[in-house]
Hints:
Blueprint: H1 5-11, H2 13-21, H3 40-58, H4 72-79, H5 86-108, H6 114-119, H7 126-136, H8 149-175, E1 186-188, E2 191-197, E3 206-211, E4 217-222, H9 226-256, H10 258-283, E5 296-302, H11 305-309, E6 317-322, E7 326-330, H12 337-352, E8 364-365, E9 371-374, H13 387-401, E10 407-411, H14 419-435, E11 439-443, H15 447-455, E12 459-467, E13 472-479, H16 487-493, H17 498-507, H18 510-590, H19 597-617, E14 642-645, E15 650-657, E16 662-667, E17 670-675, H20 693-696, E18 711-713, H21 719-735, E19 740-744, H22 751-762, E20 767-772, E21 782-787
Amino acid sequence: MQFEEKTAHDLEWHRLVRHVVSRCVGPGSALEHLPLAESPAEARAGLARTAEALHQLRLGDPLPLDGLVELNLHLARVSRLGALEGGALRDIAAVLAAARKLRRYLQQKRADVPMLMHIAHFDPSLDALYDTIARAVEPDGRLRDDASHELRKLRGEVSALRGRIIRKLESMLIEHESIVQDRFFTIREGRFVVPVRRDAHEKIPGIVHGTSGSGASVFIEPRPLVAQGNRLKMAQSEMEQEELRILSELTDRVRDELASVRSAFESLCLIDLHAASAKFGRELDAHVLPLSEAPEVHLKQARHSLLHIDGVEVVPTDFDLRAGQAVVISGPNAGGKTVALKLLGLTALMMRAGLPVPALEGSSCGFFSPVLTDIGDDQSITRNLSTFSAHVVNLIQILQKAEHGALVLLDELAGSTDPGEGSALATAVVEDLVSAGAAVVVSTHYDRLKAAATSDERIHNASVGFDSERMEPTFAIMHGLPGPSSALMVARRFGVPERVLQRAETLVPAGATAYENLVLELQRLRGSLERGKAALEEREFALKKQETALSEAKTALKEERVRLREKRSDEVLRNLRDADQELKQLRRSLRDETRREEDLLAAKQTVERIRKDVRKSKPGRSLSGSPAQTGEGAADLQAGAQVWVPRLQKNATVLELRGNDTAYVVVGPVKMTLSASELQPPRVAKAKATRSVAAKTAKPKSPRMRTTANTVDLRGMRADEAISSLESFLDRSYGNEEAIVYALHGHGTGALKVAIRQWLRNGSAYVKSYGAAEREEGGDAFTAIELV
Length: 788
């Protein structure tokens, strides 16, 4: 044992150990103790291995450990140069198979289980030993017929001899039916015999091998079978010698690999224990807590493991403690003080045993050694010790062993003696333990010990709650406040007669009653504050949730507004494009010299209708209802400049200036004259706002050859006509999911090429990059355009 036996007894540690090891699949299920880490590094490694096993278990991919059986007796026999029987070899083969399976599993999951890999000492050469044993030994432990050529031959001979003898016996039983006792044969001392009536045994010549218990039958080996029986005995002896030779040879093979076999077996048992710890943790919904660097404990909503296993409804507990500090827990009896002490002690030991702890994530615990307790009544008649004397003897040992990093748990310290002297002794003991650097938790009813927290910053008060209205404990730990003993309340709850309680109330000193009432009032106020705090936190959570919902709704509204604006803008441009087409058709028809007067009237009506449609399509106000923004930077207008047209929600290119306050612009295929006050600096789509000009002008990488289908011919056009045709072409190409297209502008004076590339730099939402085409694609007479 790595800690005091009394500590194990007080904390019921052995009961917890049984619950853990019962989940082992191998010989670990018979363990009486769990190994406890001797150092923080060892504890941290054990916790990490359990955490890996628990992670794989929760993923539904547990560690494969089937086939693990006890080998210690078999390996001890091998080490003493003894030969193994078939059953022992079968067990060794099963363990070797389990080792091979687990080795392959760990290698496959090595990124997830590095700590388990570190303790998995499985020599791959043991696979050959497994194959050798498996070829020779049946699953039931018998040697296989083909374990050797000689064994097969001898077993065949024995089988044949036995068959001939049995057939002869069966015929003799029929022939001598009148004198045989029963129609069966049996074996005596390895020889086949038949039961014959005692008075007729001479009628079957042979060798007598005994009589029945009643003496009525004589067992005779018929003389005709004696020779065959002799041959059978010889064959059986040779067969047994061959079996012993094979078993000895297999044992020697195991002996040659004894160290590796033992190492593999021990690794399997250790990993099995971590797997059992993981199962224990999953069943308790526990977590592997991080090991703090310092000896301190911070628990959030921790639960007592054994009470949880027993199905008791457990009230979760928060607790904070560190070395060199003491927590004094007070409050009524049966309120949960002792449960809190045991919870802390079990947590400290579980961390050293590599076990998950039933507490919320965010909890942590340090390395405590030793863990010392004084819980329960240790009176002994045989040792002539009273309750108080037994506690004093234990306290002396605790004071001698307590040091920095020790965890000391004291229940009702010095409580079985005079209250005045007992409280003084309890206070002195706690102060001494804290000075030694131990972490101390003590339960008490002594007011002096509670008051020590007001003068010594190393000592802190805590209390178990008591609901005075329902007259029952709440089992919740409240830090920072002492608790009243509430002895009379507890007595009333358990049914002490009221006349006794009323008399007791008159005997309680006034100061004590006032103190009890003050502490109860403090607890009531503390409870009220806690409830108010919880309500505020709940309200804050609801407000944050509502704020998040409003923010998401606002974002969705903005996106919908942008979508509607873009949709409206597209409708306006579509109307303008349709009107432009109608006007072009009208121009062509008016150029016809054969036009008639009714044609002119129809054309006039068409122009008027288009004017009304266009006027109706112009958005005079933004979607939010505010007037359209006035122009910015109108004084910087010049031919070729990019501008933003708010009413269309589109960028446009200035073709020429007409006067001081108007500009002739092109938007896609549509040209129009607009007031300078309606124009704003150009806008860049968000998706392209971060794209540099250099990136846009980079030469695109063409994935295919230039064809007539992906090329637009702009030669001979004015700049405005070329840009309009190019934008229509890009629109179609984008809809056809073209990646690379080409614009043919030729060389000429270069003005058309400059205008097109200037527009590509500033104006099109379809363009990702552009540049002169490659030589094999036509060279600088073409501009290659990569679409978004």
